[in-house]
Amino acid sequence: MVRRGKAITVCPEILGGLPTPRPSLELQGGNGYDVHKGKARVKTADGLDVTEEFCKGAEIVLALARELQPSSIILKEVSPSCGSNLIRDGSYTGNRIPGIGVTAALLKQSGFKVVSSEQFKNENQKE
Fold first, then answer.
1. pTM above the 0.90 mark?
2. CA triple 94-119-90, angle to 5 deg
3. With CB atoms counted within 10 Å of each terminal CB, which end of the chain scores lower, N or C?
């Protein structure tokens, strides 16, 4: 889709100022909606708080979505930014739980259709 000019790629974590590669990051105290309410944080396993960078990246992606008005936004599942159905549980053990990431929550809250890359792949294989 990117090669055909039908999609663009973005990474909210990079847009928010985080480096690549970066340490494992997980939501602490809730999900992406909770982060936007100030009730949860995004941290590394050693306690470094990167919530501000996640929120900044989510806002940049939202501005881009408002400009481009895509029919849907495809995000990578399990990511603390992009998970639309699953996130890690905050224990840094790889355990997955139902939940939503920071960027996915902001986009959904703003009325955009958000799907995981897995959902998108499955839906398009049916056609």
1. yes
2. 20
3. C
